[in-house]
Amino acid sequence: IHSFCKKDDHNKENLFNSINYDVAAKKRKKDLLNNKAKTQYFHQEKWIYVHKGSTKERHGYCTLGEAFNRLDFSSAILDSRRFNYVVRLLELIAKSQLTSLSGIAQKNYMNILEKVVQKVLEDQQNIRLIRELLQTLYTSLCTLVQRVGKSVLVGNINMWVHRMESILHWQQQLNNIQITRPAFKGTTFTDLPLCLQLNIMQRLSDGRDLVSLGQVAPDLQVLSEDRLLWKKLCQYHFTDRQIRKRLILSDKGQLDWKKMYFKLIRCYPRKEQYGDTLQLCRHCHILSWKGTDHPCTANNPETCSTSLSPQEFINLFRF
Fold this sequence. Notes:
It is found in: Cytoplasm; Nucleus. The protein is mainly α.
């Protein structure tokens, strides 16, 4: 009996040591992942349940940080249809929701932002869009860093100062971009008939793009001042009631649609349009990108999906 008890104690001690070893190994692995700023968490499922309360089937809450980690934004920025959507979402988070992200989600946010900047540096497109995003993020971080102790900033203050330095470096890289003229010597935009040039310009949804295009050549400058062009732009973004409140007459007594447009964008949000968006299934409350398979029990899952704007996506996590 005495020898059996000693043997049993020996087994218990080995079991205890084994458990301690497993816990220590897991802790070292977790610390290693947390110390690597470039490390991201990848999940097999590219969708997430959006639930606002505990139920028998689901416990806890779905947070903005959890959704940001799970919805594969790293791949989305490589898709031209989703790029503007992700950039707008990053901008909205930078304005007011940065402190709502967990530490891992904040790391993923900065990693995705770095990938966005590198993509713009390579293809030399959407430069102004990313400049505005970086400026918004930098302004928000300046406010949060100055209010340390009063707001929730996950991580050491030195880490955030380093991230702010990275943002300044990215801004400098974007400012130093030299647009290279393509070697293609075929038909250019200015070689097209005027009616086609005007038709293409009507597809631009940002008045600043029209102004920039008009600075390319004198002929384009004349087209970019077309009153009908600016009228359609105003009517696309704003309601008749909003337009009537901001009427501006030119020296000739006509409505100055160009000045009205820039006055309206300072007063009202512009209409947003994206090639592809995140979708919420009304039947099973699963959030995913369009075309992503998810375990929906509806007979016709496609009819249950609702497209979400970036602001509507953030509003899902405001409890």
